Sequence to fold (570 residues):
Amino acid sequence: MNRDNVSGREISYFIHVMSLNLVNDRYLRDVTLFREVTMSNEIFTPSGIPLKPVYSAKDIADLNPGTDIGNPGEFPFVRGIYPTMYRQQPWAILENTGFDLAGDTKKRTQMYIKAGAEHYFNRGSVHLVFDLPTLYGYDSDYPGISYEVGKNGVHISSLQDMEELFADYDLEKTHVSFVPYGVSPIIFAMYLALAEKRGVSWDKLSGAVDNCPLLGPLGENCVIFPWEPTLRLVVDTIKFGIKNVPRFNLLVIPVYSVRERGGNAIHELAIGLAVGRLVMEKIVKAGVKPADLSSRFLFFLSIDNHLFEEVAKLRALRKLWAQIMKNQFDITDPRVTAIRLYVMPGGSTLQAQQPLNNIVRCALHGLVGALGGVQVMGMPAYDEAIGIPTEASGRLAVHTQRIIMHETGVTDVADPLGGSYYIEWLTHRVEVEVQQYLDKIDKMGGYVAALENGYLLSEIDTAAFRQQEQLQKGEKQVVGVNILHEEPVQGEVFRYDATTASRALERLKALKQQRDNQKVAQALESLKTVAAGQGEVMPAILDAVRAYATVGEVAGALRQVFGETKGLGM
Fold:
């Protein structure tokens, strides 16, 4: 060993080994390994941000504690949107639900509420996802789709299904969230029509409708119509809701899907902010005040494995959005610039191998959400890498949130990681990276241009490829996948009802025999007339679903006027 090339730490270590009389080849290799580790390449976050081993006050010396960070409940809301955060209002707990038909899903939603799924003001929390036929605007009798009916979401065809789904529910005491993407106006209209039939005033309804198919191939890709009609329906739904349904959130920007598609935290935030700005610009042109919408929508984000980058991401997003609202839309009331965040642990972080390990992953991700100051949190079940959760795994997912909320002390103090040199530095670094990415999108002509020219899709595909490459090379280690393998153990799995498609067809056939088909035809013709003009479409959709027109019929009428999307640029 050449002493001239050895550091003081290595000499101290070597002397320690000598003193133990353990100098042999094994420990000489240990010295070499110690040197390699201390001299190794930089470590990066999943978004590519290089990390130092230690952070100190010097790393945040350029940050102004008052203007760059602030206090909880104050602009720019880095530290949370309420002064005392969870002492004032704990986050809302929800659980994704949807499979087979309405009656099947209803049983599961009731179980989740009993297990502790609860929204603000002690309302039961129902969060509904839909099958592909519904999301693409088709009924169960459309050729070639029977296999997909009721898979990975509930099949909803008409107001009749909505009536069954919420039978026995007190709508005034239930918060209902819908994730219907391109058919959001239709599903929203069905819920409003249901409330009418039950004698419940719309101003008593609490819930959210996703109403954001704008990510296209960057997300779920559940886009039906070309770009301009799609935006028109988004704006019409927002305008109608602002006027008539004051407690409903009218826009949820689901950049969770960007992360699931393979993007990183920078992609997730930049694309979400670009879409949020776009919708704000459109509703302003439609005569809506930004302040009227700002308190009625949320960002929906994924929680991934890197605890500290994910916390920093949530803190940075609040600041970036508050600045956009203040600087671009001239919002002077700081409270209106605060954005609410809804998160769920990323399904792609869960593994089919050794699925019980996912219980730990979900618990850690839930802790991230709490440390990051979110307002709404979903929690996947540990077996969702295999299929729809069983009742037992779904119940455990709800209880996981309750344990974090009630047993860890994480709700005692607002922004408990605030002031950490590392967290404050990383929050600022994420903010800078996202702003640079947004500037790049703007130079291309904005979100639509960056989507249509293929840039955003290419970026996410490249990031996804890199993640998979890291996994295969062992640069990224995942327990049970590329390290610590074990023989698979078969546990209980969810089984779909094999009769779902046939039951849906029978139900649809009976509906068409029982309803007033002439009234349906008239309502659909009126809808096409409104869609072909410049009027607001939501009232016409409402009239159609009141007459028990189906999802497929309403979407079909709009297809005749708007046409269908042709692909990437919608």
Remarks:
- Residues 421-443 form the longest helix (23 residues).
- The first strand starts at residue 43 and ends at 44.
- Residues 3-40 form one domain.
- The chain has 21 helices and twelve strands.
